[in-house]
Amino acid sequence: RKEVEQDPGPFNVPEGATVAFNCTYSNSASQSFFWYRQDCRKEPKLLMSVYSSGNEDGRFTAQLNRASQYISLLIRDSKLSDSATYLCVVNRVTGGGNKLTFGTGTQLKVEL
Amino acid sequence: DAGVIQSPRHEVTEMGQEVTLRCKPISGHDYLFWYRQTMMRGLELLIYFNNNVPIDDSGMPEDRFSAKMPNASFSTLKIQPSEPRDSAVYFCASSIGGQRTEAFFGQGTRLTVV
User: Fold this and answer.
1) For an interface test with A, which of B4, B37, B43 has the most A Cβ atoms less than 10 Å from its Cβ?
2) Which residues of B43-82 are buried (b: 16+ CB within 10 A; e: fewer)?
3) Max Cα separation, chain A?
4) What is the nearest CA distance from B46 to chain A, expressed in angstroms?
5) Phi/psi of residue B84, each to 5°?
6) Is A102 within 8 Å of B45 when comparing Cβ atoms?
7) Neighbouring C-beta atoms of residue A4, cutoff 10 Å
8) A30: which residues sit within 8 A by CB, 6+ positions away?
């Protein structure tokens, strides 16, 4: 089983729609979590961290469920510019440091 | 700061040749990560360093791959000999460290082995 799993999509949604992505992780020792965004042929960039209590940044809301070992990302009022691949990232402390493991990403296409 | 700098941006080489990818992390960052990205497998962690010391190289696919970090401002990923299945985008990323710090990525090296 992969350490981080995501539905690859693509999710095709109309502009203005609300869309949600889920991600599951297998190692219960994982300690912190992030969502990254990757545009086509570009490098990944941090979108937001995910906190236990859930957190919101404008149209974006991230949630963490440690008991079920999943995290989610909700995008409200989606824009054409939200079209990208969204990567779930899990940070786990190992013997020598912080190991960042990425999911394979969920592709979002927002259409007119 | 210029961010994480990788070179070359593109590399086309023949099977069997040695390939060296280079990375300059952000100054002051203690962690350096090498990832490989393909359509089939997504972003795979190959190896990461903490304070120039390799911590986890379990993602390195085989002995043909090696990585070094001789100092805090430079790292290399070498493939010798290269094979067509090594074709991918190779990303280097660096971070300050700690659980909540962001990893910053370079623009990647697109490697094609023919």
Assistant:
1) B43
2) bbbbbbbbeeebbbeebbeeeebebebeebeebebebeeb
3) 48
4) 10
5) -55, -35
6) yes
7) 23
8) A69, A90, A91, A92
Residue A89 corresponds to which amino acid?
Answer: V
B69 to chain A nearest CA, in Å? 16
Q: Which DSSP symbol is given to B86?
A: G
Q: Which of A32, A97, A102 sits opposite B55 (nearest CB)?
A: A97
Length of chain B: 114
Query: Residue-wise pLDDT tens for chain B (114 aa)?
Result: 689 999 999 999 999 999 999 999 999 999 999 999 998 888 999 999 999 999 999 999 889 999 999 999 999 999 999 999 999 999 999 999 877 778 999 999 999 999
Asked if the Cβ–Cβ distance from B103 to A46 is below 8 Å, we say yes
Look at A98 and B31 and tell me if their CB atoms are within 8 Å: yes
Residues in chain A, total: 112
Q: Which two tokens stand for residue B92?
A: 């280097």
